[in-house]
Structures are given as structure tokens and as C-alpha cells.
Input
Amino acid sequence: MIFSTIPLFLIFLFHIVVTSPSHQEPYKALRFSEDPSSFIQFTPDFTPFQQAISVCCWVKENSSPTYPTILYVSGGELTMLADGNSIGLFDRYMHLGSKISVIRGRWYHQCATWEYSTRSHKFYNNGVLIGSQTTRAGRRFTTSATLTIGNWGGNVRRNELAGDLYDLNFYATELSGEDVRRMYNIGLCQPGAGRHHEQDRLIRWEDIQRKSRSGNVIDVDISGECVSLLRQRLANITRQLDETQAELSETNEALSETSEALSETQAALIETQQELNESQEALIETQQALNETQEFLVETQEALEQNEIHLNQSLEELSRYNQSHNKWDWGLFKAPQYLNQTISLEQSQNIRDSWDEVANKIIGFRITPELVRFWQAVDCEAENSRPWSMLQSDEFMGKILTRDLVRKLSGAWDRLSDKLVGVRMTEPVIELLSYVTNATNCYCGN
Output
């Protein structure tokens, strides 16, 4: 909305500036013809300019004179040429023509400034500082000198301005660079464009217009040019506004896309936060489970330690028990039914039957020393003790007890028991059998 109202405001201002009768007079410029006799000359009081001075104006060249002089103060106190080739103060000159591209028929804004304490002399073209120099120490303006406008001292050939001059003012202060830029930016057609620092404006344009003129110096109505300039300026502003509007549209689209992206990012952040919260809860639960598991492991470790103690005690008891038994358990023949008796076929068969019954039940076990010791410990057959120690041979130890191994085991006992038939089981015989078994680590069945 604000951009749509700006062009209307400028058009309204343009209409008032151009058509209002009260504003017609300021649009009168002075035109100096191309002859050395066309100038304005008078002697102002330069006393107020002893500490500082600034001179600003609008100028337009209509032909190509050799030295288009805007103004000259006698004695070389101050000189300004429209093309910048001789910008002088106190008879010292800056040659700045290479920094100004003069086009006939085009208006330029020019300012020269000076300040006593800094001794700095500066020159601006179209609001831009293009040159500066330092003046001699202690040098001030001559209080009374002749000011010539439009020529270098008057009637000097090839030094005529041959152009238009507008809004020439002398200020008893050093205008800043910002002051000069503001004058230029306000433009040629703004009434009172050069009227800043009004209290310091001591040689005024409206007074210069009333001074006597020499030669062909005439008033020129530049309101038509102002119309064209304003139209051009309005066109430029409109173009800039259109470009700005397009940029704003692109910016709005980018902002919309950014807003959508931010919304999506916000949603993603919320989901991520939820996931983090769930993960935190899961971590807490896992930590609790780990703590419980740790407690369980401690309890289990304690139980294992107790079991190990009990196992060691059991192994010691088993070891003490087994020390009284041979691998082949020959001690079974010390039982009353065998000792000092001759083994009969019936007794041999009873031993075989007892072994076969147990052997079939232990099919599928892997034979280990611990398992053998366990079986020996829990075997309740006091009268028919079985030869568990024969399982400790390489043929059985570490293997899964299969039916084939059981048959082989039973067959070995059968062969052994058959050989014992008719043998009187005396204690010397039993001790001999135990000794042979322990010494050879065999079960006599191979």
C-alpha cells in the first residue's frame, strides 16, 4: 500500500511546483551569451568570509568556449570554471577537467569550499568530492575585491561562460560533504534547493539576479526543463519502485517458503523431542533392568560361590570315597557272597545282569570323570557294585555312551566274568587284580 501511494504523492508535488504562480519566479536562470562582454560584475563585502567560504550553483554549457568561467574574484582570490580545468583559491589552482565529463545542454551542480584553520580547499561536482588542495598558511580573503560572474574579470575573450547559471550562493561557512550531497540530491527544480544554512548565505541568488548586467545576459524560464526532469525523475522512481516491488514479491515468496520450511522444521523438532523423550524413558527402564540384573548377578555370584564350596566339599568326599575303590571295583568280591568263594556261573550271570540294566539306562550321556565319580557316589547297589571305573579308559572317556559302546562295555564284562568262573576270590587275588588294574589302567577285557 505504501508503494502505491508514493507515485501519487510525487505527481501531486510535481503539479504544485510547476503550476503554482508563487513558485514561478525561482525557476528563472541567467543565460550568458558567447561573447566576452556578457557578465555581471560588482564589489561585495568579503569581510564575513575571512574564516570560511562555500560557493555553490547549477551550471549548464550551451557551447564550447575555451575557458567557461562561472565566476572570478579579482587578484585570483577565487576562480571557478564549469569544466573544472581551473578551480582556484588565492591564486592556486586545481586542474580537474579529467574528472568531469561535460555534456552540452546538461545541468551540473558544483561547489567550492574553504576553511581557514584547516587551510583545506575542496571542489565537488554533482555531490562528489573530486579534488582538494591546501592553501598558504595565514592567507585570508581580501575584504574588498571585484566579483565577476560569467567571465574571467570582464571582457576577456575565450573566457565567457556561454551557458546558463542558476541558484548561485555564497556561504560564510564550510559546507560539509553531506550538505553538498543533499543539495545535489534535492535537485535543480526544488524551490530553495540551495537555501540550507540560510543564516550563512550572505551573497544570495535573488540579489545577484537584480544586479546590473553587461552585454547579453537574460533571464531564462527553466520550468519546462524542470517538467522534463521531474518526469524523468518520476519515471526513474517508478522504475525503481517496480523493481523494488518485484524484489519484495520475491522476498515474500522466499519468506513464505522459509516459513513453510520453519514449520516443517518445527514439526520435525517436536517429533524428535518426542522420540528423545521416549528414548529417555526407555533408557530409564533399561537402567532399572540393568540394576535389577546387576543385583541378580550379585546374588547368582554368591550362590555360585556357595555351590562351588559345596561342590569342592562333595569332590573331596568323593575323592576320599574313591580312594577306597579301584577302577574296576574289585572290592565287590570282598562281599561275603564272593570272598573265599569260587565264582560260579550263576554269580557271574548276576553281575552281568546288574551291569546291563544300568548300562542301558545311561545311554546318551557323555562320559566325563565327574560323571563317573557321581555315578559311583550315587550307586545304591551295595551288594552288586558295578565297575564304574572301567569307563575311565580312553575307549569310553569323553564319548557319548551309545548302544554300541554299551554292548561293547557289557561284552567286555561278559568276557571278564566268564574268565573268573572257577577262580576263588581270596583277598590276595583281589589285591593282585586291583594292582594290575591300577598299574596298567586297563579293564582286562581287551
Notes: The first strand starts at residue 28 and ends at 32. The longest helix spans residues 223-323.
